[in-house]
Amino acid sequence: MIGFFKKHLAQVPYADLLQSLVLILFFLFFCLTIFFVYRKPKDYYKEVRDLPLQEDKNKLL
Fold it and tell me: Alpha helix locations (H) across 1-61?
């Protein structure tokens, strides 16, 4: 599988630049995700954590 990518990426012009850009974009996405997770208050996660355990009062049986 790696040989397949090596063979085809060697033919792509600016492959090293594209690989670097993808790495930077992934790193930025990861950092933003961590930032938004830690930015929310803990009460939000406590509320969301208990949602599956709460009964739906509007449920029709």
Answer: 2-9, 15-39, 42-50
